Amino acid sequence: MKNIFFTPGPSALYFTVEQHIKDALKSDIPSISHRSKAYVKMHQETTEVLRELLQLPENFTVGFTSSATEVWDRMSENLIRNHSVHFVNGDFSKKFYTAVSAHEKNADGRIVEAGTHHDLQLAEINSEVELIGLAQNETSTGAAMPVEDINRLRAKYKDPLLVVDAVSSLPIPEFDFNNLDSLYFSVQKSFGLPAGLGVWTFNERCLEKAERLKAEGHYHDSYNSILKIAKMATKHQTTCTPNVLNIYLLGKVAKDMLTKGLDQIRQEAKYKSALLYNLFETHPKLNAFVSEKKFRSQTVGVAEVNGGSETLIQGLAKKGLNIGNGYGEFKNRHIRIASFPTHSKEQIEMLVDEINQLDF
Amino acid sequence: MKNIFFTPGPSALYFTVEQHIKDALKSDIPSISHRSKAYVKMHQETTEVLRELLQLPENFTVGFTSSATEVWDRMSENLIRNHSVHFVNGDFSKKFYTAVSAHEKNADGRIVEAGTHHDLQLAEINSEVELIGLAQNETSTGAAMPVEDINRLRAKYKDPLLVVDAVSSLPIPEFDFNNLDSLYFSVQKSFGLPAGLGVWTFNERCLEKAERLKAEGHYHDSYNSILKIAKMATKHQTTCTPNVLNIYLLGKVAKDMLTKGLDQIRQEAKYKSALLYNLFETHPKLNAFVSEKKFRSQTVGVAEVNGGSETLIQGLAKKGLNIGNGYGEFKNRHIRIASFPTHSKEQIEMLVDEINQLDF
After folding, report:
1. Model-level pTM?
2. Which of A70, A107, A133, B72 makes an SS bond possible with A65, Cβ 3.0 to 4.6 Å?
3. A169 and A217, same structural domain?
């Protein structure tokens, strides 16, 4: 039996990727120069279809990095002089906070318990804060922030740059890009690509801030700093030889998602996550880790397992069904199950059946 | 007719890569977690076979970056407090020099004319210099430094870190790792992989220097700084989700090269480059750009084309034979032809025949 990966990233490849890789090999995508016309055309196609999929306005640049982890460093180096606020509710939101701190800036980490999320209506941000960081979908715990809450935060605090980590949720949430300044993700999660590419979108406010910091001598320049990324993006190119194959595949998968229809993909996401949370609520040994329904991720479902998660994970692995263990301190207590666009309703139904039948 | 890429990188895939990609897809390589046992095993296999191929001693770490370009920044941030010397003889050696300068350090660029290389015996390095940078194979011009010259430089100057750019020459030159401190390359050139991975090897002297700079507050920390790379490498892992597929492919290709035999690959490299330079010397419209034979690269042959290179490049492209144009200022005046390990003797013979027959 072929393995199925329900791990929260890297995960199952989007179901069309294998064919796209074969097509890429046939059409010499890995051999074309990243400065050639053929590359420029391909790069432009990818960013345009991604713009359409995400409904990304014209004032946003699509930049590429090696990972979302790189984006945290670039933001620390290029967008913050002194003060940032981070809504931390798990290990990934914490990593951005830690990255900014490591750059010796005053990062203010607002930390709530793992498995919960912040009540943004209560947030108080003072006027010196330059950037607010928020993990819309915290992959380590399965806690997600409703987009409306993000929009309301922005309505209240218009000045600081608002940057959103959507690493493992896109393209499910319907973000309003008029209410945020930067959004980033990596491709090995919901987009179902091989790992090794981060996508960093940002608007002109980010560029203006970077220019100001540069003029003031508070900008750490590097080969992939935001102003260089933006400059090369206007030419549909990157600052160095990028992961060309993945940029090609991203365009193809985004197009496939458009063809299938975002409404359909979002409907399925609702159905699949409902199946998972129903399992977590009805199974005697499982409990949804995120108790507040409003904060439950539709793409990464996390449950506590009475007696530990290892037996269940191993039992499923024997059947070729790979789910994630807990993250960090929850390693042996949690399971994490991705229901990304590539995971069919039938696959999630089968997984739920198998879990119900397993003795663990 | 299937296209053949003789471009100097990205270039033709190593002839086994397509099969390895298919195997990787079958064995779920793109879906495994980069923190899983399966990943650790694979990562270790890749670094071990690479060590064997390069004859890399135990005191060297194998680290991964997104590109060789990234390595320039990391060295600037982590290995130099103030003073570096760069032997510049083309655009790529210049880029490292420029990167260090951009980090506001005193980079001393020793610049010789493109198409030549430095007489290292004449080099004078004063005692404050912390790092010497050298492009063993300057991809922009096809000028290469004999390994013996590098060894002699080291014998004369033992204190500064000696770092060698072998981006487009490995595994052809027989480096003596006891006579250098760091060597880096990217995989889309001689190794014939898709782009999106840099390999950075460094010894304990680099780590000691980094530790000292860190202790003194002159170390720019980032997610992929040298000490973090080294720490994760001891666990056969990376600092963030890497290009897992490429790390897998690198191990497979390095193993294929070992199976074929490095002696054989090096013999073929000599033969293929002899064919190319013979063409450049005998064809009435071509002249080898590197006139001094000692400095001629065995992996990237560069020729000036009387009357400009475009007609020749286009004429070959019509036959499915893709060669590189000149780099930078030489764009329309040069051709650059890769004879990497994947390029067979027969392919180079055919290319030479076609060039001899073409009217340009």
Report:
1. 0.97
2. A70
3. yes
